[in-house]
Amino acid sequence: MNRRFIPPSRKEGASQKLLNAALTLIRERGYASTSVDALCARAGVTKGAFFHHFKSKDDLAIAAVHYWSELTGAFFETAPYHGHTDPLDRILGYLDFRKSILTGEIAEFTCLAGTMLQEMYHTNPVIREVCAASIRGHAATLEPDIAQAMEQYRIQVPWTAESLSLHMQAVLQGAFILAKASGGAAIAAESLDHLHRYIQLLFQPRGQ
Amino acid sequence: MNRRFIPPSRKEGASQKLLNAALTLIRERGYASTSVDALCARAGVTKGAFFHHFKSKDDLAIAAVHYWSELTGAFFETAPYHGHTDPLDRILGYLDFRKSILTGEIAEFTCLAGTMLQEMYHTNPVIREVCAASIRGHAATLEPDIAQAMEQYRIQVPWTAESLSLHMQAVLQGAFILAKASGGAAIAAESLDHLHRYIQLLFQPRGQ
DNA sequence: GATTATGAACCGACCAGTTGGTAAAATAAA
DNA sequence: TTTATTTTACCAACTGGTCGGTTCATAATC
């Protein structure tokens, strides 16, 4: 549940600019360390504008996660991997696509929801839930392809399409942490290779 | 790179109490949201004591990560999975062990280094490095078993023991995020099942 | 002329960190 | 063994600055 963030920079209102600033700053430094003043400065807006559009900092956070879900939803909806006729190719194509966008600054390809969850899962149930819904919602877009592949490849397995789709998100989230640890995306890409290999093995007919 | 945290509660000095408080509070709320006052209150110590033992909040953070590495190092060193004669059994036993400690509060089984990385990778290179070293160091304890299994099972693969050991940590870190999202460890456990299955498939002779 | 959007100045609470001190423990001198 | 001295461990009160949030005046827009 993440993606590259390309700041629109079109002529936009204060609330749009603040949302975009939030995506960048929160993914760089986390939520608590991102002050309202810093958000306003980044957005080129004053505090009056901030509290005109958002009733609190947490209110902006919630709006930012919704905005994030919309952006990523549209981004993956139009991605090329949906074009494959074989459902397994679509799944593997999704991973190739995820790997291909591991470029530029770390904050540009990591996940807002995952970052915010780490800080707020325990203290803010509302934000926890919108972040969870964002990740769950993205994982759900993979389920039909997985289910179709399971049927088409006639595999009998003890796991569900939902479970695998969530595991894929877990690997992505973990890969982001490795990227943050190492200061680069290379290790994250290797982890996606392992996941790619796992899914190939799962759907590959075995035992002669 | 994480584990259950059992507060020692022996008669200990202020710095020990502060380190233990840091492990709990930072994993619950993140670093930035954990104030020095909150740490002191949790440790039952005053601010004077805090700044007697640590020259800054960041200094405590670094000490806490080192403390974490020591605790987890000792914890996994004495874990039962090392007893298996087959190296693959040791690797899979490690995962079973990791799964078995996914109990109690989320903050008790999640990883301090992974949590802190999310907030500080971009702003504090020193802390980023000690967190990275903590995770890398733990992953490195798995490498000999993986290398031995690769040799013993005579598999020819395009990946290294290091790469797989880091992938295992990625899955764990990602599983923690899913646990934080869902409010429980169940999804995290399922992700570990997928990783378990992947490693079994990797070392299982195929194509015949 | 209302409603919506923005700005500058401000507020109390809380932040990390300092000060100046006390009590006990370790060390040294007698 | 007792006394003197230093060091370590700790504490309560405080400081300057930053935090999220408010106030109220002013633009722009319909």
Description:
The structure is a homodimer of 208-residue chains. The first copy, chain A, has 208 residues and is mostly helical. Chain A has a single domain (14-203), classed as Tetracycline Repressor, domain 2, CATH 1.10.357. The first copy, chain A, contains eleven helices and no strands. Chain A has helices at 14-29, 36-43, 47-53, 57-77, 87-100, 106-109, 112-120, 125-140, 143-152, 161-182, 186-203. In chain A, helix 5 packs across helix 9. The interface between A and B is large, with 53 and 54 residues. The structure holds a DNA duplex (30 and 30 nucleotides).
Question: What's the layout of helices and strands?
Answer:
Two copies of one chain form a homodimer.
Chain A: H1 14-29, H2 36-43, H3 47-53, H4 57-77, H5 87-100, H6 106-109, H7 112-120, H8 125-140, H9 143-152, H10 161-182, H11 186-203
Chain B binds a DNA duplex (30 and 30 nucleotides) through helix 3.
Level-2 CATH architecture of chain A: Orthogonal Bundle
Largest sheet of chain A: none
Mean pLDDT of chain A: 91
CATH class type of chain A:
Mainly Alpha
Structural category of chain A: mainly alpha
CATH topology of chain A: Tetracycline Repressor, domain 2
Proportion of residues in helical segments of chain A: 55-70%
Provide the gyration radius of chain A in Å. Answer: 19 Å
The parts of chain A where pLDDT drops under 50 for at least 5 residues are 1-11
Order of helices and strands of chain A: HHHHHHHHHHH
